[in-house]
Amino acid sequence: MSADDEDALRTLSLAEAGWRLHMTLGHQLRGEFGLWTAGAEALFNDINAKMPHRLAIDGDTASAALVDALWHDARSRA
């Protein structure tokens, strides 16, 4: 994760971090976790079980849920 992405997680609102990080951190997560591949369904199921308020049905919604989780984690450590 880039320093800019880490800074955004700590300083932006959840909604703003979500749309600002979609093409940077979200793209990185989609690539590294293979969120656009057929094998990603198990990860979608795991995200949906842990974050039922964030339905992961494709690579974009899954990476958005992961960015949300990272945002909450960054805020809890601040």
> Helical percent range?
55-70%
Which segments are poorly predicted (pLDDT under 50) over 5 or more consecutive residues?
none
Strand content: under 5%
Number of strands: 0
Order of helices and strands: HHHHH
Task: State the shape.
Answer: globular
Q: Calculate Rg over CA atoms.
A: 12 Å
The largest sheet is:
none
Mean pLDDT: 94
| End-to-end separation | 17 Å
Q: From the helix content, strand content and strand pairing, which structural class follows? A: mainly alpha
Our count of helices gives: 5
SSE blueprint and pairings:
Blueprint: H1 3-11, H2 14-20, H3 25-32, H4 41-50, H5 59-77
Helix pairs in contact: 3-5
Q: Gist?
A:
This protein is mainly α and 78 residues long. The chain is built from five helices and no strands.
Question: What labels would you give this structure?
Answer:
78 residues; single chain; mainly alpha
Description:
There is one protein chain. The chain is mainly α and 78 residues long. The protein contains five helices and no strands. The mean pLDDT is 94.
